[in-house]
Design goal:
FAD/NAD(P)-binding domain; six-stranded mixed β-sheet; alpha/beta; nine-stranded mixed β-sheet; 401 residues
Length: 401
């Protein structure tokens, strides 16, 4: 059997995997091979997110996430400009609905300024908020001009073109079924065999399983959460000019249901966050016994469920009830009615969970000779993907030990 050779193999053709492959090629002059089990690039998280270009408002100043978001945001804008990918800087309004949320708004402003965001405006009073978003409700807010919207699937296609122009390949429908260390190389079984000195696992929801194929026992497990969206009916879309967000709950890495005017001009509402019954669990009827067993056999999952039972039940109720979903949105835009919400898509978040039941909200890598496994690349992974790809390439190419 002929064995394919590649200077670098990247598993997963989401935006982080493609950005990593492109960065590896630029750093070494070698050729990367990206292996994707599905029939298209950006098939899962990247292709199902809300398309927001995040500003870096939420992240602890000085953290890796804050730095990568700032660097990655501007790199993404350059990519879009150079490759003709649809994007727009829309700005974002973060709204405090009650006085009790004002301290959190103050902390967000502090973080944003510490992270280098210029032009943040503190807005006081309903009349001032409605100068920005005429239909909004609240007592105070922050206007963040750096936030925008991006066609991330288009960005992935642009990265694919760059990889292929540099001599690399993106090959679809190649599921990785085996990984074995062979001397100073890795032998990858994926509808044929590939040998490479550098292996990078960017498999998203399947990253922990790929790591196990390579002989590791990851310290975390991927537990899938589904975020469900609605579209606003055409007669209600005019209620939203740009992006309207609530003040986030600091206990969770999810930002809460919000309203986003997308590059298509439509307005998306959501997402909620419910446990998915499959790593491809885009609907309640998508069930994988293997994936469900993986979740339910993990002690960390039960610790998470026990700690946040009330919140989880509320999310399930909002998933099953359009009325409940609309009620959550009316905190931000009171004029929205139940019938304004039209069914739309959903996304599955590859949430890394520790054995203590805590949701990982920072990058998690595990290394082996010649291999780097990206087990958690949290939001803002799409926004920061180009900077994340540079960081992953740098770490992957460093000598181990």
């Amino acid at each position: 059997m002929t064995v394919q050779l590649a200077d670098h193999v990247v598993i997963g053709a989401g935006i982080v995997g493609l950005a990593t492959a492109e960065a590896l090629q630029r750093a070494t002059g070698g050729r990367a091979l990206v292996l994707e089990m599905e029939g298209r690039v950006a098939p899962h998280q990247t292709g199902h997110n809300s398309g927001v270009l995040h500003s870096g408002l939420y992240y602890r100043p000085g953290s890796l996430k804050a730095r990568l978001c700032t660097e990655g945001r501007e790199a993404m804008v350059r990519l879009c400009e150079e490759e003709g990918v649809a994007f727009e800087r829309t700005g974002k309004l973060v709204v405090a609905v009650t006085d009790s949320e004002r301290p959190a708004l103050d902390e967000l402003a502090r973080r944003g300024e510490a992270n280098g965001l210029e032009g943040i405006q503190r807005l006081e009073g309903l009349e001032t908020l409605r100068e920005v978003e005429p239909a909004v409700a609240g007592c105070a807010g922050l206007w963040i001009p750096q936030t925008g919207i991006v066609d991330y699937v288009g960005a992935c296609r642009a990265l694919q073109r760059r990889i292929e122009a540099g001599g690399g390949r993106v090959e679809l429908r190649r599921r990785v079924t085996g990984l074995k260390r062979a001397g100073h190389a890795w032998r990858v079984e994926a509808e044929g065999a590939v040998e490479t000195p550098h292996l990078v696992n960017c498999a998203g929801a399947w990253s922990d399983r790929v790591a196990r194929l390579a002989g590791l026992e990851p310290k975390v497990r991927i537990v899938p959460f589904r975020g469900e969206y609605h579209l606003l009916a055409p007669e209600a879309a005019g209620l939203v000019r740009g992006l309207i967000y609530p003040v986030p709950d600091p206990r969770f890495p999810f930002l809460g249901v919000h309203l986003t005017r997308m590059v298509t001009g439509e307005v998306e509402a959501g997402p909620n966050a419910v446990l998915a019954l499959s790593r491809r669990g885009y609907r309640w009827t998508d069930v994988s016994l293997r994936d469900l067993a993986s979740t339910l056999s993990y002690p960390g999952a039960w610790r998470l469920f026990a700690r946040h039972a009330a919140t989880g039940l509320g999310e399930i109720h909002r998933s099953l009830s359009r009325r409940a979903f609309a009620r959550a949105l009316r905190r931000l835009v009171p004029a929205l009615r139940d019938e304004h919400l039209l069914p739309a898509g959903s996304g599955v978040r590859a949430q890394a969970l520790g054995p203590d039941g805590k949701l990982l909200d920072d990058f998690a890598f595990e290394r082996a000779p010649g291999a780097l496994h990206v087990l958690c690349a949290p939001s803002p992974a799409a926004t920061a993907s180009l900077a994340i790809g540079e960081e992953i390439a740098r770490v992957a190419l460093e000598p181990l030990g």
